[in-house]
UniProtKB/TrEMBL annotation:
Pfam families reported for this sequence: Arf
GO annotation, biological process: Golgi to plasma membrane protein transport; intracellular protein transport; protein localization to Golgi apparatus
Signal peptide: none
Positions of GTP binding: 24-31, 76
Superkingdom of the organism of origin: Eukaryota
InterPro entries, per the entry: P-loop_NTPase, Small_GTPase_ARF, Small_GTPase_ARF/SAR
Annotated GO CC locations: Golgi apparatus
Name the record gives this protein: Arl3p
Key words, A-Z: GTP-binding, Magnesium, Metal-binding, Nucleotide-binding
Binding, Mg(2+): 31, 54
Residues annotated as transmembrane: none
Organism: Malassezia pachydermatis
GO MF term set: GTP binding; GTPase activity; metal ion binding
Length: 214
């Protein structure tokens, strides 16, 4: 009898899990963002500014509003991007991470198909947007390192640029994905609460297509 009651209790209290996929060019702040969540919400240590590039994936399960947000942080190097499509198909929300200062200064990049950060980001973004469009999958754009940014309009500027990139190849097609854009700072914690709310809301909006896992 005890085991039956315990089993029913465990089943009743099982939390739905939503998969949140963090992708973007290498060095954009994906791992730093994930470590900031660990620090601010799970009492982990503060994220180091010297985190090495991700090889493979990092996973974080974050209890949030009686649910679990499971974050997959995938490496952003060109050699790692073949993994992206494999995980995108199983995600409830795609998070496209952009380095705010690198965008502002249009920094030079190495080992990319374009020599500058904005152009390299746009090229990689096209493939991600196409994948999301086929499924109507929500995308949250995360502009990181906002503590190092003085432009108050940067988030809106990036949103407009990504929208324009889509329209250049699909002049007569409205994207099937929902796109939102937020600025965050892993260093100060600015913006974390807002993006968590956005992740959960978008995941629930996609629930009819991809139910949460138990």
């Amino acid at each position: 009898m005890y085991h039956l009651v315990a089993g029913l209790y465990a089943q009743w209290n099982k939390k739905s899990t939503y998969h949140v996929l963090l992708i973007g060019l290498q060095g954009g702040g994906k791992t730093w963002f994930q470590e900031a969540l660990r620090h601010h919400y799970l009492q982990g240590r503060a994220p180091s500014s010297r985190l090495p590039p991700t090889v493979g994936q990092n996973v974080l399960d974050l209890p949030y509003q009686k649910r679990i947000l499971r974050f997959w942080d995938l490496g952003g190097a060109p050699s790692m991007r073949s993994l992206w499509a494999q995980y995108m198909a199983d995600a409830h929300v795609l998070v496209w991470v952009i380095d705010g200062p690198a965008w502002i200064h249009n920094a030079s990049v190495e080992n990319e198909a374009a020599p500058t950060y904005r152009d390299a980001t746009s090229l990689a973004w096209r493939a991600v947007a196409e994948e999301a469009h086929t499924r109507g999958q929500p995308i949250v754009v995360l502009v990181t390192k906002m503590d190092d940014v003085s432009s108050a309009s940067l988030v809106d500027e990036i949103h407009a640029s990504l929208t324009k990139t889509w329209r250049e190849g699909h002049s007569d097609t409205t994207p099937a994905y929902a796109l939102s854009c937020y600025g965050v700072s892993a260093k100060t914690g600015e913006g974390l609460a807002s993006v968590l709310e956005a992740f959960l809301a978008d995941a629930q909006s996609f629930e009819a297509t991809r139910p949460p896992t138990a």
